Design the sequence.
């Protein structure tokens, strides 16, 4: 940590950082679980490591290099019984112990960061001695930082982008893209006719068409292309050159170059289409949001649930800034945790 702090100060050109975060300390627990270490032993080591870190960070506060510090963990919201869960209640106790041990007027532990969105709403669940994470944070004067407000991870582990605009219907676009893919599939069939029957097992069509509606997102598609599709196509390209000649090979490569962007666009549009059901659930519960897009609604509801704190949001386009500005400017909405349970996918 000493090195990381010094590197940060040097890169930023500062003598003091406002907040220094311990990122994902729960990786230690994940490693211990992987090596079959008893949970009780791993947990004891885990919180002792955090306590040692707090002592170090308090020393750096004394030296004037840090104003406050905190923890960023993906497991603050997890069920307390889970092996990898990080207990804010235990960490607050540790912070007070370090404060007392060092004779400090106040603890420097002041910030808590965790993922939160419509699909990952565990931070609203009153499962921590009858309280939810937000309540504990506010009661102890901490600043909550919420990350991944629009990139949710569903119960099945899929990444779910909370982005959909009902004004931009995509069904007709999907149909057009599918028609273009069908045309390319037929063209591929004609080009592959130069190969002896039974000399190849897979084609671009057979390794993509059955899975068109199963890709979770663009990254999932890219991984599938790299690991499965491209190796098969490379073999086909070499086979076509050997039997059909360079001209047919060039036509086949040109066909593939045309197909891949269409495939990517199809997956993109399909993912947008899949957000319709979630959007409908939200509108049924909050009919006043009918003119809003899913991103704006998601940010607004998150802001309302947080009441006081910070939502970390990457905004690469002007329209994203407008969505965020509009969502945070609107009056807060009363949030019920059980309502959000309906949004789980």
Sequence:
């Amino acid at each position: 940590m000493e090195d990381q702090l010094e590197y940060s100060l040097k890169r930023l050109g500062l003598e003091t950082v406002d907040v220094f975060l311990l990122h994902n300390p729960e990786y230690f627990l994940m490693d211990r679980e992987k090596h079959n270490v008893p949970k009780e032993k791993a947990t004891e080591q885990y919180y002792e490591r955090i306590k040692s870190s707090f002592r170090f960070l308090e020393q750096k506060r004394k030296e004037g290099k840090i104003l406050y510090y905190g923890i960023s963990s993906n497991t603050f919201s997890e069920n307390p019984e889970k092996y990898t869960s990080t207990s804010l209640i235990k960490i607050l106790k540790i912070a007070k112990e370090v404060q007392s041990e060092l004779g400090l007027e106040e603890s420097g532990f002041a910030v808590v960061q965790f993922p939160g969105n419509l699909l990952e709403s565990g931070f609203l669940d009153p499962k921590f001695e009858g309280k939810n994470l937000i309540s504990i944070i506010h009661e102890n004067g901490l600043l909550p930082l919420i990350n991944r407000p629009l990139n949710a991870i569903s119960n099945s582990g899929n990444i779910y982008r909370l982005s959909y605009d009902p004004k931009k219907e995509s069904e007709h676009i999907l149909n057009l893209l599918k028609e273009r893919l069908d045309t390319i599939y037929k063209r591929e069939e004609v080009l592959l006719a130069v190969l002896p029957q039974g000399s190849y097992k897979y084609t671009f069509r057979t390794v993509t068409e059955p899975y068109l509606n199963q890709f979770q997102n663009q990254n999932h598609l890219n991984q599938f292309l790299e690991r499965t599709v491209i190796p098969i196509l490379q073999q086909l390209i070499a086979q076509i050159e050997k039997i059909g000649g360079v001209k047919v090979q060039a036509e086949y490569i040109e066909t593939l170059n045309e197909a891949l962007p269409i495939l990517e666009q199809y997956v993109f549009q399909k993912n947008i289409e899949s957000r319709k059901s979630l959007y409908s659930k939200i509108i049924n519960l909050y009919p006043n949001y009918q003119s809003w897009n899913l991103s704006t609604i998601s940010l607004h509801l998150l802001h309302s649930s947080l009441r006081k704190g910070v939502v970390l949001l990457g905004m690469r386009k002007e329209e994203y800034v407008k969505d965020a500005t509009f969502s945070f400017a609107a009056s807060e909405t009363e949030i019920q945790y059980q309502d959000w349970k309906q949004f789980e996918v």
The chain has a mean pLDDT of 91.
